[in-house]
Amino acid sequence: MKKRKLAAGIAAAALVAVLSVSAVYAGNQGKSVSALWGEILKQSADEEKINTQSANDEPLYAVGKDVSITMKEYEQVKSFYKLKGEDDGQAAKDADKEIKQYNALYAAAVKNGYSVTDEQVQAYIEDMKLQLESVDNSEDIQDVIDQFDSEDDYWAYEFAVYQKQLPIQNYVSALNDEYNEKAVDSSSEEAQEEWDTYFENLKDKLVKEQNFQNQ
Q1: What is the mean pLDDT of the chain?
Q2: Which residues pair with 62 in a beta bridge?
């Protein structure tokens, strides 16, 4: 049976896995892409620890009807795309689209009743820990973890990530189940392509409904 991949600590990209990046090394830094991504995540986690501002005072990138996007979220996703080798302009464009879709999905998830308790998030984290040794990209995940001061610090960071990401995952999973119930053969390649198209259109629709205004 083919092992599955585990997505590692992506605060702003529920639908993007940094470990899908094909490059083994980034630039001349001599580090794997996953290690460089881990450094970015650790920096983000450290900033949260020392941030004395209230959430309301945090610099914003964009404001929508139901949800606001912090500059930190946007910059983190932009860093991801730059790690993939995109220039600053393309990375900015892709990050803008990604972060708005992510937050629009979160707003829709909350609006449709998809919330999670701390206990549910912790249970999910514990399951991720158990999966770590059996997934086929465990070494890449470990590269990310190793950039943190301790493994506990990494999982604490992931806990904060999944407080927002898990409602999105549950919402999207329910949408997918509902869509598949109507499909003649939900396991076919054609059905999967139709779902992908439907989902992309849905994300675009949700972003338009939020009417994000860049700050």
Answers
A1: 80
A2: 69, 214
